[in-house]
């Protein structure tokens, strides 16, 4: 090992000496050839006499040049690359003007430009064994350098004839080196391409062997899942930019000061600098199981979050929104408190604050997502029977409602698809009663038609009044577009007429209320006919009346266009002709109405409560309207899965303590000392906390008192009201 290190050191020193000596020899030789043997004639006393050679410095001064600007010939700078051992032996023996003969010793490379050494550094690379390079490497390099095409050889020969011998030798070897590098790149690219082709062939063989390839055209869902959610459409700014331009949307959103840094990027909402600093509230998500390509998740509450949830339920029972405000001061990202306070703000016409609270709740829940939970795949499920998951459903629904009112139906449609994808089979919020309306408002007719075609076979969407009327309307509006071929337009018009006749035959009681909503007076032949008259609306089942009222109260304005009304009138007359002729489809539809719409399921009632459509809410059955409906959990499922139970509290009436009852009315969290459980040393701490809450409640109560100034009232009305003598 020491001997090898010494050899390396000696080679490096010899290389430095060789480079410096070669540079000095080249400069001196050029100077001698250029200036040393020239004679200058200077006028001296009327005659000229020759002078001896002048120094290089004097010549530069005389010609006005600086050092380093001398013109160099083609052979001025020549460097020979040879073996390091030869350099060690011959380097000290060479003089200033000595030149190594060509062909002597090992093969060398002559270089005219010192910067060409950069391209031929690889000539010195390679393993060195006992001070010598293996012969196989040298022969391999020669073979690779000779493997170029005929064009490269001809170009090298022509260049060799035109150039000097030394320069042609160098340029030829440089060309060979560059050609070798290009060949290496080409071979590498060919290997990669061949490797990719082999991988594709292997995958094809695996698919053929496993029977995964199916003959025939692929299904529609293979292109993109019908409930596939796109991230860019979850941002309402994307839709607003398309309507009004980026400058109008982002003009007021440019921050004037440095924004607060939030822990992660979110898709459902954009964090705001006015929100409290985010800290984990104790909300998390876990993966329950994965089967048949679906992943089932569930939100979880920590012990601290459970205590906050108990306080929230007590605040809701007090029927005082200020108690929820006090709770949010200590837990600013408690989801149920944010949703309940959002409803209170909405009832007070503070829409901006209500929307901000819903966005904060969505942000809190999105920060708790499991790493495998995906919003766009359509394969992640959340069971609505778990109370922890319901908050996410309700937050998405409230955000969707705000987006629709804001004028962003495309974004609202994406949120509707997201809610439906979380549990499409059960559909706890019954989003199928709303998705058609949002698709028509967003003018996404193709999506509505595709959803109807794919789900009609197993979901019977045509039995819902909203789909029965919205799908033919989508076909008709699609036929009104001028950018489609004439054949597609006529086909869409025929399909629209066929479906609207089926809808009118199945739901005849929806025609007159629709015309009344649109302020259109029906024809006498239609209004007095027994099929479309008032008897049709009265005779339909209550559950069907509720669905029709929900659809008409939400989507009636989509039918107000004159072209749509004239198309509807034509098809109404066709249906009347079929009824008068005794079409058997009319009786079949009547018997189907009596069987299918006996009673609406609980998810439809839940949807009606959340929609707040007056006509549909008025049609709710008495067993729903008589029970208390909470905004944070409307009509919970009867088969709820509880992960933890709220502890029972003793009723203050049982103690007969009037003072405790008074304090409990001020602050629902207040408990007397006898009502607490024995908890050891924590009793004193709980007692102090109860007193502090009581003092805060009394302070708030005193701040809300208003005293009337009696003297000021007398000055305003000195004569009195007249009722008092």
Automatic annotation (TrEMBL):
GO cellular component annotations of the record: RQC complex
Listed Low complexity bias regions: 19-28
Pfam families, per database record: Tcf25
Record's compositionally biased regions (Basic residues): 9-18, 173-185
Annotated segments matching region Disordered: 9-28, 85-106, 130-192
InterPro entries per UniProt: TCF25/Rqc1
Protein name: Transcription factor 25
Organismal lineage: Eukaryota, Metazoa, Chordata, Craniata, Vertebrata
